[in-house]
Amino acid sequence: MKTKLNNSRYVITFAMLLMLLQACDNNNSEPVNLNIETMTINGEDLNGIESPENISTNPEIVVTFNSDIKPETATESNIKLIQDYDEEEIEIEISVLGPTLTVVPKISLGNGTLYRFQISANLLNLDEQSLTATTRTFTTMGTFSPPGIIAHYTFEGIPDDIQNDFDPLVTGVIDIDYTRSRNENAGLAATFNGTSSIIEIPNGDALMNSNDFTICFWVKTDSEGHLDASGNPKGHFVMGLGAFFGFQYEIFSGYDGSKFAIQYQLADGSTASDDMWFPYDAQDATNGGWQGWDFAKSLSIEQMQGYLKDTWTHITFVHHSDSKKSSLYFNGELMKSYDFNLWPDDDPKKTVTGLKYGGSTPDVVNELALGFIHSRSGIMWDTEPWGDYERPTSNHFRGQLDDIKIYHKPLTPTEIQLIYSSEQ
User: Fold this and answer.
1) Strand runs (DSSP E) across 130-246, as ranges?
2) How far apart are CA 107 and CA 87, in angstroms?
């Protein structure tokens, strides 16, 4: 019996000694370094040698570390998602669960764009140990398109907006074919016959009512047989939202120029139209043009026809409300701009605040027409030989349209050039 008691005492003493040694060892252990074990974006490896491509514009980045993260250090000052081409920081949501860090952008990212994901050395674990500053990159899917797009019409066999932001979808489609576009990657384009083809998009005013605005698209005219009632070449009404009561784009019959007509909102809430008129011999305020035209690129007739006659050209119109400036680009290059700050002091258009649809029935209806200057519901110019939809010899558009994109933001010259370069 005495032997059993002694053995029990030895066991208890040994256990207590072992616990004491372990406690001492824990007190003397080194802090755990902070290291990344895995990093993924939508399940793909983001921590390898190769930078992931074709990533969704709504990605989820998950980083797993070897130790628990100190949550208060997981902030946007220490964790960043940066748009590479302009260094814009994308707003992100950050969550921490033990050793796992999850990052999601608050907006949809742009297409075809390189992004940098950065974690600074100020991210700590519970032992106050920092991570070595880390940067990884990835590229989103598709051709380049900045974030914030409102509508995108790709015409891949259907006329609808692929952003699905517009409701209802296209309702009027007359005599449209879908044929090969400018290159293999571009797929198909909408083809208009020059006599009756039209696509009508309801609630078109919602597309343009915005302080800031950009529309860009690819267009190719087809001059063959495009004649008026007298047998002369006729112009192309490429598109129109209630004509100049909204916005319209047309190409002149001689392919020697084109114009946007835009309805602007004034400070008192009323509207007024102005033309982005761009003939081949364009003038600015320094060489005989209007005082508000601050830039105009003068071209020869042959150069202008090289843009507008029977060839694919990328057209962009931009209005920037802060600067009160509108600009026109061909193939990513600035062609003309005007600045409402330079209008006469007594001109109401000096107070322009943005774009606003100003049409009313029965003259025009708030439907964006592709292929004519206004939708079939409007009666404006029905007595004119060039403006009556029912006449095949009116200025119907003959040619192809593709990749119409609309933004309620002013795209920068860099963004416009990148769109053109990635899509040509």
Assistant:
1) 134-139, 149-153, 172-174, 177-180, 188-193, 198-201, 213-221, 236-241
2) 16
Query: Is pLDDT at 19 greater than 60 in this prediction?
Result: no
Q: How many CB atoms lie within 10 A of CB 387?
A: 18
> Does residue 24 carry a pLDDT above 70?
no
Beta bridge partners of 337: 295, 327
DSSP 212-238: SEEEEEEEEE--TT-B-TTSSB--EEE
Residue 403, C-beta contacts closer than 8 angstroms, at least 6 positions apart: 152, 153, 154, 155, 186, 216, 217, 218, 423
Q: How many residues appear in the chain?
A: 424
Residues in contact with 5: Cβ distance below 8 Å, sequence separation at least 6, in sequence order? none
CA 203 from centre of chain: 20
Work out the average pLDDT over 312-325: 98
Using CA atoms, how far apart are residues 149 and 160, in angstroms rounded to an integer?
A: 15
Q: Is the pLDDT of residue 1 over 90?
A: no
The span from the CA of 171 to the CA of 330, in Å, is: 30
